[in-house]
Amino acid sequence: DKAIDICMDAVIKRFTGERMVRYGEVKHLFRFVLTVFGKLKLDKTQKKKLVGIVGEIYVKFSPLGNNRLEEFLLSEGCEPVLPGLMDFCLYCIYNSVIDHELYSRNGKTAAIYKMVYQFVLGKQADIIKMMKKDGHFRPPMPFDEVRKKSHAIIGQGVKMGEGWLLPAEMVELISEGVTNIVCTQPFGCLPNHIAGKGMIRKIREVYPQANIVAVDYDPGASKINQENRIKLMLSSAE
What we know:
With 238 residues, the protein is of the alpha/beta class. The protein has helices at residues 2-15, 23-38, 57-61, 69-75, 85-103, 107-134, 143-149, 165-175, 190-195, 200-206, 223-235; strands at residues 49-55, 78-81, 180-186, 211-217.
């Protein structure tokens, strides 16, 4: 918490004001964040099970939406692993390119979004480079690689909700050694049930080591049932 407070104070001080913020300052802030969080003491005496969390954007990241899933996994002796929010942003940008390639939508719009996509990819590459140089944290897989890994699982035209990004993130986690995955989904969310839960069998065919459980989160759902399903998955986790 102290590290987060220090970083937030630095962000507020650096980005409040009327002047334009230069990208060099942003990169300096990235390095500052890595340095501050890199000083946190880690308990390496116990090897924890890595458990990935994917799913609908809100339920995946919000403790309110997923009944404090990360806290539950930590209490079970696991280490939660979440794909970054930037992947979702890049997914939304690239879908305009897919619209042109598959459905012959506006070519000029697609060209603009493709340039934006390449620009943001470049910024992600800067972050990955700094994380590798720092050495304390697991850098994300470049999004273009994540996108291509989904091709063997699902078509790029499936882009309702999280669409092809959902199985792509599961494949990314499995490729990086995180074979245990919780796929969070709102009850009744049809796109998530198709692109998430519906792709689990296909993913297991390509990646037999995958250990995935899909869990519905809804105000009326039983937290005990949700946690029991996850515990059953963890019982066979590597």
